Structures are given as C-alpha cells and as structure tokens.
Amino acid sequence: MYLRVSLTDRCNLRCVYCLPEEARFASSRASFAELSRLTTLIASQAGVGKIRLTGGEPTLCDDLVEHARHARSLVGTVGMTTNGVLLQPLLPALKQAGLNRLNISLDALDAEGFRRISRRDGLAKVIASIRAAQRLGFTPLKVNAVAMQDTAYAELVRFAAWEGVHLRFIELMAIGEARPFQAAEYVAAETMRARIAASGIALSECLERDEPTSRIWTIDGHPPAACSVGFITTMSQPFCATCNRLRLSSQGRLFTCLMDNAGIDLLTPLRSADEQEVRGLIARAVAGKRPPARFVRDESMAAIGG
Ligand code: SAM
Fold first, then answer.
1. Which residue segment(s) compose the domain that 194 sits in?
2. From ligand 1's centre to the CA of 18, what distance in Å?
C-alpha cells in the first residue's frame, strides 16, 4: 500500500482549482506524536511500502523534517509533494532525514501566469528550489502541473528538458474549487499530447511506468533518465482498479479513496489509548476499499492530502 500523509491542511498559495482566496482551515490538528503514531499503525496494519508527505503545504508544518525521518524509519521510499515556495532552505535537512522522492508543483513559467493561477507571487523561489533540489541529488525530480486550457504545454516540456526534470501533467479533477469549471477547463492527456506535438516537440511513449497512475513519454533527443513527460489520467483513464492509495489527514482521518468525503476518525480512539480499535478500523477500511460511485469531491485536495 501507498500512504499519503497530509501534515497540514493550510497552504501559502490559493491555486484557483484548489482553494478559495478566503480559505478556512481546520482549527486543530493531530500533534506530531499522534500523526506519527497513526502513520506507524497504518504502515504496519496495511502493509505500507511507500509514504508521501503532502498537504495543504507540507513545508508549513514545523515538524516536517521529523515526519520525514519517522516515515523513513518505517519504509524505504519517502516522498513529498510541495509547491516549492518555502522549500529551498529545508532541502539539506530533508535529504539528511531520508526523503528520497520529491515532486514540486509548478503550473506556469511566467510570473504573471503563476500569480493568476496561485493568486500569490513565488515563481522565482519555486525555480530556485527545483535547481537546489537537483544540485542535492533528488532524482528523479518530478514537476507536477495541473492541466487546464491555458496551460503552456510546450513551454513546460521544454523547461523539463532544459532543467532535466520529470514533468507530470495532472488532468483537472472536479474537486474543491475546480468543481464549477472543471468541465470547461478540462484537457485530456491525448489532447495535451496533440498540443505538444503541434508545437514541434516529438514525444515517444516508454513501455515502463514509474507508477501505475502515470504513462511516461520521452522527449526526443533526451535520454529517458534525464527527463520525461507523464500524464496522470485520473479522468480519461481512471486507475481505480489498481489503486493502492490510502490517505491520512492532518486531523487523523483515514481515507481509502480521494473521492471519499467522510473518512474514518482514527484520532479519537488513539486519544482514548485504544490502539486495538485503531488497528481494527484500519483493517476494516483497507478490506472495504472500493472505487468511488461518483468522481466528484466536495472538499479540496488540500483538505485530504493531494
Ligand atoms: N501544496 C502541495 C503542492 O502544491 O504540491 C501539496 C498539496 S496539493 C493539494 C497536491 C497536488 O494536488 C498538486 O499537484 C495540485 O496541483 C493538485 N490538485 C489540487 N487540486 C486539483 C484538482 N482539482 N485537479 C487536479 N489536481 C489538483
């Protein structure tokens, strides 16, 4: 199983497809001791082989480095998904703590486009973090871009080739703030590839995949190890049948599907010192993991851990 732990629901950006400008965040969250204990219990009960730290924005969590170290004591692969704005100074400590996979979200390469999507400034800091992560040897370094109608597909692919990173376009989902405009802004992976090809860039599909969720293409003229383009086809080719993901929120709720709006409260039994109950809840949740009835989520990705 693959566990994604949301360290906080707070975020320093307000991406138009994720959070409203006046986003309200949870008034309380599980402590480091509680969240790390729940992580341990889920890892052992569900047979977790890989953990990803996410949010909200994980770099806003004061205990981020300790979480990375703790996660690495449980499993060999520990990743993080971040917007990269506050990342650069944290990189050496994260590397030392054992973080060995890094995804940095970046939807636009010009300051105006970045501000329009994220409603904040920060492009230069994100690019500085990408380059610092490269220098520190975070490989393969992935850059995630949410695909919308105005996304600069070809520019992002050229950026990936130039910087030597692995670009992943994520199909826009009807989650959080994106619900009212998802249908109008949605671009399927096939259309993205057609747009990239129309700009004169040749991509060739790789047979191998780094994750079941992502088909990978090499950029002609560049070795696959140096850079690649992938498409997370949650909408056009859902991967529910092979999904092995669990999510733990910063409020200590366990979700077995991104489209699950309720989750299961593990924090209350943990606080009652009833670890047998927590283990039982985890076992039942994992046994009952099913594809969603509807592909819509009321809350944002930030709330559940994107
Ligand atoms: N703050 C971190 C970041 O920006 O990478 C981690 C959390 S963020 C919620 C995780 C990922 O979810 C990001 O790559 C983000 O772009 C993506 N995301 C959020 N809302 C989405 C939506 N409606 N459709 C597709 N992807 C979405």
1. 2-303
2. 7
Q: How far is the CA of 277 from the centre of ligand 1 (A)?
A: 32
Hey, whose CA ends up nearest to atom 25 of ligand 1?
172
Pocket-forming residues, ligand 1, beta carbon under 6 Å: 11, 17-18, 54-55, 57, 81-83, 105, 144, 146, 170, 172-173, 175-176, 178, 301-302, 306
Instruction: Report the residue among 81, 102, 171 best suited for mutation to probe ligand 1: largest number of ligand atoms under 8 A from its CB.
Output: 81
Helix (H) or strand (E) holding 169: strand 166-171
Structure tokens at 169: 């376009």
Six-digit token string for 135? 């220098």
Atom of ligand 1 lying closest to residue 301 CA: 9
Q: Per residue in 136-174, pLDDT tens? A: 999 999 999 999 999 999 999 999 999 999 999 999 999
Q: How many domains does the chain fold into? A: 1
Which class for 279: exposed (0-12), middle (13-18), buried (19 or more C-beta within 10 A)? middle
Q: Model's pTM, two decimal places? A: 0.96
Q: pLDDT tens digit string along 248-264?
A: 999 999 999 988 888 99
Distance CA 135, CA 249 (A): 32
Q: What is the pLDDT of residues 164-211, one digit of tens each?
A: 999 999 999 999 899 999 999 999 999 999 999 999 999 999 877 767
Radius of gyration of the chain (CA): 19
Nearest to 50 by CA among 39, 63, 58: 39
CATH number for 234: 3.20.20.70
